[in-house]
Structure formats: structure tokens, C-alpha cells
Design a protein that fits this description.
The chain is of the alpha+beta class. It has 2 domains: about 140 residues, Cathepsin D, subunit A, domain 1; about 180 residues, Acid Proteases (Cathepsin D, subunit A, domain 1), CATH 2.40.70.10. Helix content is about 15%, strand content about 45%. Strands 4, 5, 6, 7, 8, 9, 10, 11, 12, 13 and 16 form an 11-stranded mixed β-sheet that branches. The protein has an 8-stranded mixed β-sheet with strand order 20-21-22-29-23-28-27-24. Strands 3-18-17-30-31-19 form a 6-stranded antiparallel β-sheet, with no helix packed on it.
């Protein structure tokens, strides 16, 4: 086996990264695996009993409990320290008055997402099913049903970001670590949260900070090398066009994925029909997320080498593309050297080096 792409893939996957689209663990057991089970029945009953009707919502609006974001600070933006937890950007927030650390910033997820047991702890309430029906959430290994809900208040670095629509997950992932499975909690803020209350969002990977632009327009730093591409929304998340070997495809901009440019197996057969790529079968490497998961062997993870990848208006020579379950996407490993800005008004993504 050619060790170069193998080792580079491992370097991109040496830690946990959980999101609606994809996740990766490296664990020490010989037979890793992911078990997805229904959330505790008592927890789900508690959630159901706390559901809100339209009249409940109107009353909470009148009382100021469900509200729009506060006016922006004088400087016109809010800046948050950014963690880089297991290869994906994270931040701290207050959610319904509770301090929550390591919230994943996941542009590959349409809405904020909370586990059922966490929703109970944080006081996140669903809408009555007669008014807001459950919906499908697609992930790397299948589909789950999510419950539409509302989080009454999110506070970021002292700024009142108001109330937000969100989803409650009704399944749980348990990842085998050694002999016993461990609960894997997903907590994330998705695209809609940022796009509905700011004009632009900057994820500065080198300086490890997140900035929400609440007023004005985004302009790249003069004199700084920059790439850009228009994005469209596909199922509520941003996506751009990529091409290689004469094949063009749409890829989700997915900060919640820890790896780089990734394509599904069916696209790989079109991109390189005679190239099987380099298999990545790592004991302990597990992909987990919405819909469940599997280890690298079951997922048939591979790495392809292409002579040229056209992305963001630039040709990347001798590029590597990962082949794994889930949609075509561009993850945080690709962005890790850049200051990445999502211009919601201009529908453009900017990469400043």
C-alpha cells in the first residue's frame, strides 16, 4: 500500500468530529462499531409533555420569552473564541441560560440540533405535532426523524441572539470504546441559525476565532491572497461546484466534517472508473453521525489522487479526494489554513490565506 495517502487520511481523522453529515473517531478497540438506538422512552415522554401550541407560542412572544435578536453591538459584529475540537470548529454559548461548551459550528447542518436528553436538561421545547410534523434528517448511514422545536434564548459572548428554531434528535449513537459502548452526544448550531441573524460569518481557522457580521457588508482584506465561489443552498445548506477528470459535481460546505474534499462511492466510479484508490482500513476508525455509522472497513473508505481539482476558482494540483459514505462535501481539513467567510447577502464564500 502507498503509505502517503493512507497516512494523510489518518492525520485528518485522528479525533472525534460529530455532525449531521459525518463524524470520525479513532478508538483503541479491535472491533469498533456504532450502535444507534432510540432515546430513552421516559425522556421522549418528558419532551412530548413540554410541547408548545400556537397559543403557547403567542403568549411567550407577548411575554418576551420568544424574541428576535437584540440590536447589534456598536462595532457591528460579535467575535467568539473558537475551539478546534477534534478537527471541527466549536464555540461556547448560553442556551436558555445554561452554559454549553464545545457547540459545533456546522454549516453542513440546516438547523441547530440537540439530543433528546439534552433538550430536557436545557428546557428546549418541541412544537405540538398537530402543528409541526416531524421531519427527515439524512446522515452518513441513513435517515432519522427529528422533532421541530424552539430554543428560547441563545447568548453569544454577551450578545442576546434571541430565539431560534431547532431540531431534537430522537435517536442516540453509542460508539464502542474498548469493551463498553459510550454515548456520543451531538450538539451543534447549523446554517439557518447564522444566516437568519447575521450578514456574514467568518470562521478564522489560523487565528481560532468566529465572527458574526451583524451590520454592513463583508469585504476581503486588501492585499491578502483570496479565492471565492458562489454558493447555492441544497436542502438548506450551502454548496459549491467542483470538478476533476472532466466530472463536475456539487459539494456541501461542511465545517462539521473533519476531513477534506469527500465524495460518495457512486461519484468515485464516475470520477476514476479504473482507479480503485488506496483503501483506508484502520482498526478503531469509526464514522458516526445522524443515521448511525460504521467502521472504515465497512464504509470502504478510500483515497483517490487526481492530477487537478478545480475549486474556488483555482486549480489544486496533485489533489487527494477521500471516498466515504455521505454526500459530497468539503470539510474543515480543507479549510484549516484559511480565513473562511460565508457572505449571506452576496451568497459567496471567500477563502483568505
Amino acid at each position: 500500500m502507498d503509505s502517503s495517502p493512507y497516512m494523510q487520511f489518518i492525520a485528518r481523522s485522528l479525533a472525534l468530529a460529530t455532525a449531521l453529515v459525518s463524524a470520525a473517531y479513532l478508538v483503541s478497540c479491535a472491533q469498533p462499531g456504532v450502535t444507534t438506538r432510540a432515546a430513552d422512552a421516559g425522556v421522549l415522554k418528558n419532551i412530548e409533555q413540554s410541547s408548545l401550541s400556537a397559543s403557547d407560542a403567542q403568549r411567550l412572544i407577548e411575554q418576551g420569552e420568544i424574541r428576535i435578536p437584540a440590536a447589534s453591538p456598536e462595532e457591528g459584529y460579535v467575535t467568539l473564541p473558537m475551539g478546534f475540537d477534534s478537527g471541527v470548529p466549536t464555540f461556547e454559548a448560553k442556551i436558555n441560560g445554561h452554559r454549553v461548551r464545545d457547540v459545533i459550528l456546522d454549516t453542513g447542518a440546516a438547523f441547530p440540533l440537540f439530543e433528546a436528553r439534552q433538550a430536557v436538561k436545557l428546557g428546549i421545547q418541541p412544537w405540538k405535532s398537530s402543528q409541526h410534523v416531524p421531519f427527515q434528517m439524512n446522515g452518513i448511514a441513513g435517515m432519522e426523524v427529528g422533532i421541530p422545536a424552539v430554543v428560547r434564548n441563545v447568548t453569544l459572548a454577551g450578545w442576546d441572539a434571541g430565539s431560534a428554531r431547532c431540531a431534537i434528535r430522537t435517536q442516540e449513537n453509542w460508539v464502542t470504546l474498548g469493551m463498553l459502548p459510550e454515548y456520543s452526544q451531538i450538539t451543534l448550531m447549523g446554517w439557518d441559525f447564522f444566516a437568519s441573524r447575521s450578514r456574514w460569518l467568518t470562521v478564522d481557522y489560523p487565528k481560532k476565532r468566529i465572527t458574526l457580521g451583524l451590520r454592513g457588508s463583508f469585504n476581503p482584506t486588501p492585499g491578502r491572497p483570496v479565492m471565492s465561489a458562489p454558493f447555492t443552498l441544497v436542502h438548506g445548506v450551502p454548496a459549491v461546484q467542483l470538478s476533476a477528470n472532466g466530472v463536475r459535481w456539487t459539494a456541501v460546505l461542511d465545517t462539521g466534517s473533519a476531513i477534506g474534499v469527500t465524495i460518495p462511492h457512486e461519484l468515485a466510479t464516475r470520477l476514476a472508473p479504473s482507479d480503485p484508490g488506496v483503501a483506508v482500513d484502520v482498526p478503531g476508525l469509526v464514522f458516526a453521525g445522524i443515521g448511525g455509522g460504521h467502521n472504515s472497513s465497512a464504509a470502504n473508505v478510500r483515497v483517490l489522487n487526481v492530477a487537478k481539482l478545480d475549486a474556488f476558482g483555482r486549480d489544486f494540483l496533485a489533489a487527494q479526494i477521500d471516498v466515504a459514505p455521505g454526500p459530497a462535501r468539503i470539510g474543515s481539513f480543507f479549510f484549516s489554513d484559511y480565513r473562511v467567510t460565508y457572505d449571506f447577502v452576496g451568497r459567496t464564500v471567500w477563502l483568505e490565506h
